[in-house]
Amino acid sequence: MTLLGQFALWIGLIASLWGFGVAFLSRWQHRPELGASAIRAAYGVCAAMVVAALALWKGLISHDFNIEYVAAYTSRNLPDSYVITAFWAGQKGSLLFWALVLSIFAAIAQVVTSQRHKDLMPYVAGITNMVASFFIATMLFGGSNPFERLSFTPADGNGLNPQLQNPGMVMHPPLLYLGYIGITIPFAFAIAALMARKLDAGWIHAMRKWTILSWVFLSVGITLGMWWAYVELGWGGYWAWDPVENASLLPWLTMTAYLHSVMIQEKRGMLKRWNMSLVIGTFLLSIFGTFITRSGVIASVHSFAQSSVGYFFLVFLITTGAASFALLYLRWPQLEPDTKLESLASRESAFLFNNLVLVGIAFSVLWGTLFPILSEAVRGVKITVGPPFFNRVNIPLGLALLALTGIGPLIAWRKASTANLQRQFVWPLVFGIVPAVSLAALGVRNGWALAAWALASFVLGTILQEFYRGVRARIRMYDEAAPTALVRLVNRNRRRYGGYLVHVGILVYFAAFAGMAFKVTEEMTLSPGEVAEVRGASGHVYSFKSLGVSQYNAFNRIVTAATLEVTRDGKPIGVIKSEKRQHIDSFGNKTFEPSTEVGIRSGLREDIYVVYAGSIAGTEEANFAISINPLVWWVWFGGVVLTAGRLLAMWPGGRTTAPTGRRDVQSGFEAQLVGTEAP
Amino acid sequence: MTPRTKFIAGATIIVASVVFLIASGVKETGVYFLTPTELFSRVEQDPTFYDVGIKVGAKVVRGSIRRDDAKQQVDFEITDGGKQFPVTYVGLVPDTFTDANEIEVIVEGKFGRDGVFRATEVLAKCGSRYEAELQEAKKAA
C-alpha cells in the first residue's frame, strides 16, 4: 500500500504544479481552455490525495509496523478509534491530512460556486493547487513522507501518547486544521479577484460561506483544545498563552475582524483594501501557525520535534506574503472606497474601532510570541514574556472589544442621532451596571472581573432588547403569539439574529474567563480516612476524605487510582477519582511516562478539580492538588452558543441569497434597518 | 473637526494604548531566558543578576533527580554541556519529568548566590523516546 501512497503523492504533486502553472498561463496567453485544465487538475489532486490517505489508513488499520509512521504512533493494543485518528497524531500524517482536506475543499469550492463567478474559478484553482503542491512537496522532499518504510519490522508499535488518547484530542486537531485549511479558500478567492480585476463585491459573496465555515471550525477547534488542556494536562486551567495556542488564536482574531469589516464594504463600499489585506493576512497567519508548531523555533510544550520542515514553511510564508501584497499594491488604485465616513457616532466607526482593537490584540499576541526571537536578534539576549504579559495587555483590550460588541450592532449606520443613542443604550446600561454594583456590594473586589461582568451583562442587555423589540413589532404588526413571532423573526433574518447569538457566546466566554480570577488551589497530603477542607471563592466549603489508593490493570494500562469522598457544606456530593496511568504495550512493557488523569466534578458555579500527585513511597499517604475553578462550565457553554449562532447565520435559505453587486446588497440590508428603527 | 479627523484621533488613541500596553508589559513582565553557560557569564559580570527572576533552558542530568515526596520537593541538576548546577523545586512536577531519558526542561525562578537555582516552575518537554530509539535502530541497521 505504501507504493500506491507514494505514487498518489507524486501524481498529486505533478497535477497540482500543472494546475498552478496553467491557471496563470491561461491569462497571459488568453487561452481559456488552460483555465479549464487548471480546474480539472484541482479535481485530480483531490482524487490523488484521497488515494494517498486511504493507503495510510490501510497501513494503520492493518498494523503494518514496517511503515515508520504506523510504528511510531500506534500499537496492537491501541483502541480502534485511536488507530484511525493516529492519522494526524504526528507531523507526517498531519501534512497529508492538510493536503487531503485542502484538495477536498478546493474541489468542493469548484463545484458549489455559482456560474456567476466563473471568471474567478481558474485562478481559485491555481491558488489552491499552488498551496497543495507546497504541502505535497514538503512531504516528498522535506523528510516528512508518511509512507517511509523501516529497514526492519518491529513486533509492536510505540503506541499513541496517552495524553492524546482523549476524545477531545481526537477532534481538536482536525477541527483546527479544517479551520486553518478553510482559510485557503477565501485567500484563493481574494487573489483570484485581484488577478482577474473583478474587484466588485462578487468575490466576497462567492466565498462568504467559506469564511464563516472556517471561522466556526477554528472557534470549535480552539475551544476543544482548551477543553483538552483542562481535562488532560492537569495544571488546572484551559489557556496558558503557549506559543502554539497563540498561533491558533491569531488567524481567529484577524478572521473575526474581517467578518465585521466586510459588512462595511457590503453596505457602504468602504474598506476594500483593508478587507483584502485581512484575508491575505489571515492566510499568512494560518501558515505561520503551522510554522510555529512544526519548526520548534519557539520553545513550546506543544511543538513537535525540531525539524527542517519549519524552513519549508518559512520560505513559503515569505514568498506567498511578498507576492500577495505586491499584487495588492498593483491593484491599489482600483480599490478606491465608494463613500466616506460621515460621523464618528456611526456603526461604520464602531466597526472600524472593533477592527483596530482585534488587530491590536493580534499584534500584541504575535509580538509576545515572537519576543524571544526578536529580542535575541536585536539585543543579543533572549527575553521571554509569559501569561502576565498577555493578561496585562489583553484584558484591557478585550474589555474594550466587549464594549464595542454591545455598541456596534445597535448604533445607526452613517450618523447616529442623540435620540438613537438614548433609545438603544439606556436600558442596556442599566442592565450592565446593576449586577456589577450588586456584586461589588457583596464584597467582590476584583476590578477587572467586575468590569468584565458589567460589560458582559451590558452586551446581553443590548441583545435581549433587540429580540424583545423585534418580537414586539411582529406581535403588533401580524398579531402573532410571542413564540411564533420569535421563531419567524429569527428565521426571516438569520444572519442578523445568528450574529447576535454568536455575540452571546462571546460574552459568556468573557464572563467565564473573569471567573478564573477567583480560582483557589491547595496542595495537601492525606492518609486514608484523613479529611481536608477547601473553601471556594463562592463561599462553599468542600471537604475531601481520602478513601485510599488502589491499583489495577486496564487493557492497555496499569492504573493507580486515588479516591476522595467529597462533601459540599457538609452534604455528601459523591466521590472523585484521579488516576496515574502507566501505559503498556501488548507484551506488558511500559510505554511512555506515567500520565495523570484528572478528577473533575463540573458544576454551573464552579468545578472541583482533583489531581493525584503520587503516593509517598512506603506509606499510604497520597499527595493531592485540589482546585476550585469558578465558571469553567460556561466556557464550554459559550462555545456551544457561538457555534449554534454561526450555523444559524450561514444556514442556506433565508434572505442572504442572490446579491450580485453592491447596490443589491444594500437592499438586502434594508430589512435590518427597518427592524432597528421599528417602534 | 471633520468625522475623518475625529476618527483618526480615536484610532490614534487605540494604537497608542496598544503600543503602550505592549511596551510596559514587556518591561515589567519580561524575563531573561538563558542557558546555564550564559547565566554563569552574566552573574560573573554583574552580581545583581543573582536572585532575579529568570528562565533557564537546559537538559536534566540523568540520574540526578531526587524526590522527597513528603515535602513534595524535587532536587536535580541541569546542564547545557558546559556549565552544570543544582535546582530545587517544591510542588508538582509534570508527568513528563522523569529520569527515563535525557529530558529538556525550562525552569523559572531565581539563581541564588549559593549556586542553587530555586525554581518556581518546571516545564518538561518530552523528546519522544521511541522516535529516538527508532533513529538508533535505523543507524544500526
Task: Explain the overall architecture.
The complex is a heterodimer of chains A (about 675) and B (about 140). Chain A is of the alpha+beta class and about 675 residues long. Helix content of chain A is about 60%, strand content about 10%. Chain A is built from 21 helices and ten strands. In chain A, strands 3-4-5-6-7 form a five-stranded antiparallel sheet. The model of chain A is unreliable at about 655-679 (pLDDT under 50). By secondary structure, chain B is α+β, with helices and mostly antiparallel strands. Chain B folds into two domains: about 1-30; about 30-130, Nucleic acid-binding proteins (OB fold (Dihydrolipoamide Acetyltransferase, E2P)), CATH 2.40.50.140. Chain B has a five-stranded mixed β-barrel with strand order 2-4-5-7-6. The N and C termini of chain B lie far apart (about 80 Å). Strand 1 (about 385) of chain A pairs antiparallel with strand 1 (about 30-35) of chain B, so a sheet runs across the interface.
Features:
heterodimer, A: 679 residues, alpha+beta, 21 helices, 62% helix, disordered C terminus, B: 141 residues, OB fold (Dihydrolipoamide Acetyltransferase, E2P), 2 domains, 3 helices, 7 strands, elongated
Strand content of chain A: 5-15%
Q: What is the N-to-C succession of helices and strands of chain B?
A: HEHEEEEEEH
Q: Which sequence of strands runs across the widest sheet of chain A?
A: 3-4-5-6-7
Q: N-to-C terminal Cα separation of chain A, in Å?
A: 68 Å
Counting DSSP H or I runs of 4 or more residues, the number of helices of chain B is 3
What's the number of structural domains of chain B?
A: 2
Low-confidence stretches of chain B: 127-141
Task: Please compute the radius of gyration of chain A using only Cα atoms.
Answer: 27 Å
As a percent range, the share of helical residues of chain A equals 55-70%
Oligomer: heterodimer
CATH class assignment of the largest domain in chain B? Mainly Beta
Chain-averaged pLDDT of chain B: 83
Main pleated sheet of chain B: 5 strands, mixed, barrel
